[in-house]
Amino acid sequence: MKNKTALLVLDLINEIVHPSGKYSSEGYFDQVTCRDVIHNAKKAIEHARRLEMLVIYVIVGFSENYVEWPKNSPVFRSAKTEKRIILGTWGTQIHSSIEPKPHEKIIVKNRINSFYQTNLELLLKNNDIQTVLLTGVSTEFVILSTAMQAHDKDYQVVVLEDATASSHEDLHISAIKILERIAKVNTVENFFREEIGVLCQN
Q1: pLDDT tens digits, residue range 57-81?
Q2: DSSP code of residue 111
Q3: With pLDDT > 70 as the criterion, what percentage of the chain qualifies?
Q4: Closest CA to 9 of 97, 68, 130
Q5: Roughly how many angstroms between the first and final C-alpha of the chain, as a whole number?
Q6: What is the pLDDT of residue 2?
Q7: How confident is the model at residue 201 (pLDDT cuts 50, 70, 90)?
Q8: Is 50 exceeded by the pLDDT of residue 1?
């Protein structure tokens, strides 16, 4: 039976999660490191591949001339002035520890929400996906907004909490409290242990 679960790997790019990234000084690298997010995301990806789940990477970025840049956004204000998250550069490459396989899709977005003006929903629909697993940074932005959109599009949503992080622990905790109202929140190992049990029974 075709696996109807997809793993989404959201914004785990060098600019945000690498120590040399331009956002690392804002707390992201410290939180990603202390929460072991890259390692946990890697475990989730390995489990998903073994179970033949659809693995989709989503990255945020802008063209070199920033034609897509939202000038009124406080979140993205520094991107243009400080030449951050330019598509096709090292900054928007996925962290080397969790590089996608050649057949795995990479979706580019120009906003926080992974569904906004991307073909993410098309990929999910064409692959008969019913459940989405969310990993990445940051919890209060891309994870929360993507979870809400997936919820309203009638997907089952699971947040793999130990594979997510924010720039500050209190923001992460607050976002998780909200996410618990629209999604299931689990750890990587607990979810896949339960999932493997279900698959074995089938």
Answers
A1: 999 999 999 999 999 999 999 999 9
A2: S
A3: 96
A4: 97
A5: 9
A6: 61
A7: very low
A8: no
Domains of the chain: 5-201 (3.40.50.850)
**Do you find a cis peptide bond into 63, omega within 30 degrees of 0?**
no
For 164, the token pair is 């997510």
What is the DSSP secondary structure assignment for residue 113, as one 8-state letter?
Answer: S
Assigned token pair, 86: 């330019």
CA atoms within 13 A on the CB side of 68: 15
pTM value surpassing 0.90: yes
Region 150-174 average pLDDT = 98
Cα(189)–Cα(200) distance, integer angstroms: 16
Enter the tokens of residue 73. Answer: 């956004």
In the chain, where do the E strands start and end? 5-10, 54-60, 105-109, 131-137, 156-165, 184-186
Residues 6+ apart with CB under 8 A from 126: none
